[in-house]
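Practice problem 4.
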């Protein structure tokens, strides 16, 4: 499997923005949400936006602008993020840290996109699955159970002990790994 071309191009832009942040003395932003699901599923799950975590939102937005991102405006453009006109994919800072700081920082992955020397960070597949299960448990996103199951099927080497603990944290104890089977 491979990524869809516009997603792969967006990963390269994310890596470049991440490197620019490091050059300024800041940490790289962390990819979360739907774009992390697309990353870990190799585009089996697709998204229209990149959710990022960084305590340096304004600095990251400056770097995105340097890469050609624009802030949409006008009727029908109710986004808080930035769009790259060539890719029609949005980038948005959604928090300072992933999942209210419950993510084990040692599990955040550093990734180098194909054809790129720059790097970006993404939450672990286990934390992403836990996020999907937490959204499912909230009742607001029933399709997230299917995403969680797909991600686990694609990553049978996932740390199941850590995953179970994280799912229980994200679902207030209502779900665990066993609830994903079925």
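Answer key:
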């Amino acid at each position: 499997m491979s990524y869809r071309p516009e997603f792969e191009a967006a990963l390269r832009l994310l890596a470049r923005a991440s490197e620019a942040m490091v050059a300024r003395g800041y940490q790289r932003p962390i990819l979360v949400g739907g774009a992390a699901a697309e990353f870990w599923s190799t585009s089996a799950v697709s998204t229209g936006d990149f959710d990022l975590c960084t305590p340096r939102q304004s600095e990251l937005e400056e770097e995105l602008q340097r890469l050609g991102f624009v802030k949409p405006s006008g009727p029908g453009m109710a986004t808080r993020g930035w769009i790259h006109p060539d890719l029609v994919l949005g980038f948005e800072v959604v928090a300072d840290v992933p999942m209210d700081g419950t993510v084990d920082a040692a599990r955040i992955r550093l990734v180098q996109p194909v054809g790129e020397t720059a790097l970006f960070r993404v939450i672990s597949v286990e934390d992403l699955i836990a996020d999907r299960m937490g959204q499912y448990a909230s009742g607001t996103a029933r399709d997230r159970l299917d995403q969680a199951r797909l991600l686990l099927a694609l990553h049978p080497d996932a740390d199941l002990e850590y995953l179970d603990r994280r799912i229980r944290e994200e679902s207030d104890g209502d779900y665990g790994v066993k609830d994903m089977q079925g």
